[in-house]
Design brief:
Layout: H1 2-15, E1 18-23, H2 28-38, E2 44-51, H3 55-65, E3 69-72, H4 78-84, E4 91-94, H5 96-103, E5 109-112, H6 120-128, E6 132-135, H7 138-155, E7 159-161, H8 164-173, E8 181-188, H9 198-202, H10 206-209, H11 219-226, H12 229-242, E9 249-253, E10 259-265, E11 270-274, H13 280-288, H14 302-305, H15 319-330, H16 334-350, H17 357-373, H18 382-401
The protein binds NADPH dihydro-nicotinamide-adenine-dinucleotide phosphate (NDP), 1-deoxy-D-xylulose-5-phosphate and manganese (II) ion (MN).
Binding site for NADPH: 26-29, 52-53, 137, 139, 218
Pathway: Isoprenoid biosynthesis; isopentenyl diphosphate biosynthesis via DXP pathway; isopentenyl diphosphate from 1-deoxy-D-xylulose 5-phosphate: step 1/6
Family: Belongs to the DXR family.
Length: 409
């Protein structure tokens, strides 16, 4: 009798729609998530959405998705959110604590798609509350990878990788024993400067760096991609996510962004994850995992693509990748420092306060000075990671303020 009840519960569970919280609902990943949810024929319901400062855009996505709760991090966005939700039963809230409240709404899956380190606290709160997290926000793992992975194990919850390379690798790995994996390779598009000289890259403008050849993404990740810092952050992300050390992680430049990740095994077999460059593919995979749903995501047309090319990354023209790889190899909290300094440097580049090649230089200086004076240490907890992050930001801002010279580009 008990077995029959269990079976019935399992059937009921499988039949009911999955409930979702979307953190970063107004961004590039957030909008693609909304498209998947709306096209999934009632397979999903949305409990809560959260955004940064655009209350009007958040209200629109909350209405589209029928969310019950909408939280905007910046209190200045509240009036717009409240006004745009009038006449609905959707509750509006504002402030960082309200974003955490959204993350803690009862749901089957939380989509972690806030840009940057602002995503760490709410995403961690969802994980600690036992939610399955579909993780787009790579900065969570770069800033506090140990804490996230430990918490996932302690809460018995899963982190499902949304980042295209990690999602492809996750699918290509299957349930392989880690000991049988010789190498995990992440591909990099090479970004808009793949064929540029070092001098040209050094003088690149924000507009040029924001012009990614294959993906339409938010500004932070697009700038990261242009200097290959994104690939460095992704190596660190892969290290924590898959539990594989730096020596078994590799990068290949693959301009077509069709093969997103590869896994080479001890018997010589290689499996790979392929898809058209459309984030709706990994988003749908994570939201429906372990099942699959039907989507209108772009289909891969290999004959149309014609040629797939692969080359080694150039560490001279793209020093950010070397700096990130060094941080991964050295550990001791350097990924946390790297992540924080990079965010400040990218912000400064976008405000034309520094030139493109100074991003990697600033980040390397932050890592070196953290090593020299003891700031770099393995963060034991999320609070510890955020304290190192904060201290690094203050130093990086101080270094920026002390820079002679006017705006560039
Ligand atoms: N875009 C992509 O294709 C990919 C992105 N990723 C990763 O996914 C994450 C999101 O990227 P992307 O969608 O491109 O970024 P976007 O800049 O497009 O969107 C960021 C989202 O985060 C919100 N946000 C910002 N600050 C806060 C905050 N303090 N609290 C709550 N919400 C906040 C923004 O709201 P508002 O607009 O109001 O500020 C917006 O909804 C990043 O970590 C990125 O590296 C990974 C792989 C691919
Ligand atoms: C879509 C995605 O996953 C991005 O993180 C992507 O990797 C960016 O492209 P690059 O390969 O140019 O960094
Ligand atoms: Mn990626």
């Amino acid at each position: 009798m008990e077995r029959i009840i269990q079976l019935r519960q399992a059937v009921d569970e499988a039949a009911r729609p999955r409930s979702i919280v979307v953190l970063g609902a107004t961004g590039s990943i957030g909008r693609s998530t909304a498209e998947i949810i709306k096209g999934a024929d009632g397979a999903f319901t949305v409990e809560a959405v959260a955004g940064g400062r655009d209350g009007r855009a958040l209200a629109q996505v909350a209405r589209e998705l029928g969310a019950k709760f909408a939280a905007v991090a910046d209190p200045d966005g509240y009036a717009d959110l409240k006004e745009a939700l009038s006449g609905t039963s959707i509750e509006a809230a504002a402030g960082p604590q309200a974003v955490i409240e959204a993350a803690l709404h009862q749901a089957d899956i939380v989509m972690g798609a806030i840009a940057g380190t602002a995503g760490v606290a709410p995403t961690f709160a969802a994980l600690a509350a036992g939610r399955t997290v579909a993780l787009a926000n790579k900065e969570c793992l770069v800033c506090a990878g140990h804490a996230f992975m430990r918490q996932a194990a302690a809460s018995g919850t899963r982190l499902l990788p949304v980042d295209s390379e990690h999602n492809a690798i996750f699918q290509a790995m299957g349930d392989a024993d880690l000991a049988t994996i010789e190498m995990i390779t992440l591909t990099a598009s090479g970004g808009p400067f793949r064929t540029w000289t070092a001098d040209e890259i050094a003088r690149a403008t924000p507009e040029q760096a924001l012009n990614h050849p294959n993906w339409a993404m938010g500004p932070k990740v697009t700038i990261d991609s242009a200097g290959l810092m994104n690939k460095g952050l992704e190596l660190i992300e892969a290290h924590y996510l898959f539990g594989v050390e730096a020596a078994r992680l590799d990068v290949l430049v693959h301009a077509q962004s069709v093969v997103h990740g590869l896994v080479a095994f001890s018997d010589g077999s290689v499996t790979a994850g392929l898809a058209a460059p459309d984030m709706k593919v990994p988003i749908a995979h994570c939201l429906s995992h372990p099942k699959r749903i039907s989507t209108k995501a772009r289909r891969l047309d290999l004959a149309g693509v014609g040629q797939l090319t692969f080359e080694r990354p150039d560490f001279e023209r793209f020093p950010a990748l070397r700096v990130a790889l060094d941080a991964l190899r050295m550990g001791r909290g350097l990924p946390t420092v790297l992540n924080a300094a990079n965010e400040i440097a990218v912000e400064a580049f976008l405000k034309r306060l520094i030139s493109f090649h100074e991003i990697a230089r600033m980040v390397e200086e932050a890592c070196n000075s953290a090593l020299a004076d003891g700031l770099a240490r393995e963060p034991e907890s999320i609070e510890d990671a955020l304290a190192i992050d904060q201290a690094t930001r203050e130093r990086a801002r101080f270094a920026l303020a002390g820079r002679a010279g006017a705006a560039v580009n």
